[in-house]
Amino acid sequence: MKDPDASANPPVDGSELIRFDHVTKRFGSNTVLDELDFSVESGKHVTLIGPSGSGKTTILRLLMTLAKPDEGTITVAGDKLFPAPEKQVREVRKKIGMVFQQFNLFPNMSVLRNITEAPVTVLGMSKDEAEARARELLDMVGLADKCDARPTQLSGGQQQRVAIARALAMRPQVLLLDEVTSALDPELVAGVLDVLRDIARTTDITMLCVTHEMNFARDISDQVLMFDSGRVIESGVPEKIFNDPEKDRTREFLSAVL
Ligand SMILES: Nc1ncnc2c1ncn2[C@@H]1O[C@H](COP(=O)(O)OP(=O)(O)OP(=O)(O)O)[C@@H](O)[C@H]1O
């Protein structure tokens, strides 16, 4: 399962890969992110936890440019993602890969083609190179024998593992994971989390994850950020946040979910 080459040209470990400065996002009168500041260092695995509606998914959607902030700046690997000219946004956006709750695979393409499509059309990779890379990634997620299958012939857990391979095929510097096991039957969750644990352990990719799987968060995170009402109210290593949180709000949240 080793894939030392999951991300292209990773920045030097310890440098800042993602930075939010005073980011505010409103939906009508609802201020979802409120002058949010936080950063993620290159190579680290950071998990966002917090109550439903606290703004976690919105952060990932801003990074994917699926939504825009109202105020503030977002920087990725030293380059502005917001505010920035459209051409720069497209370049910076290539550094980011995301796996969603729903797998969003193309149903009428083979598994292999689902993975090679964007590297060929967006990155201009040759078909041969993209296929070789896709086969390596399918091996990494334990689906080497499913290249020719259609997504509908796979279980939800297998589809999600294809979606993980598809995100990595673009050689992003950061992988965003948004509640990737929420849509799965319970017996399929462990297989997907094991694949992600292996990716966290064996690659140098930076991960920013939203999850309700607290054991998974404890296992893979270098840092856990506790969110409430659009702000980080507490952050620290998992041992600290899960065993000895400082804020009552964090304690209340964890006692409700653990
Ligand atoms: N497109 C949208 N239009 C209007 N309101 C939205 C939109 N997207 C999100 N919101 C609102 O923003 C708030 C934060 O949503 P978000 O999905 O970021 O929360 P979350 O912390 O990820 O929650 P959960 O854990 O339930 O997924 C919620 O009140 C939500 O209703």
From TrEMBL:
This is Ectoine/hydroxyectoine ABC transporter ATP-binding protein EhuA. Belongs to the ABC transporter superfamily. Keywords: Amino-acid transport, ATP-binding, Cell membrane, Membrane, Nucleotide-binding, Transport. GO terms for molecular function: ABC-type amino acid transporter activity; ATP binding; ATP hydrolysis activity. Pfam families: ABC_tran. It is found in: Cell membrane. PROSITE patterns: ABC_TRANSPORTER_1, ABC_TRANSPORTER_2. PANTHER family: AMINO ACID IMPORT ATP-BINDING PROTEIN (PTHR43166), GLUTAMATE_ASPARTATE IMPORT ATP-BINDING PROTEIN GLTL (PTHR43166:SF9). One of its GO terms (cellular component) is plasma membrane. It is a peripheral membrane protein. Residues 18-254 form the ABC transporter domain. The keyword Cytoplasm does not apply. It comes from Streptomyces regalis. SUPFAM superfamilies: P-loop containing nucleoside triphosphate hydrolases.
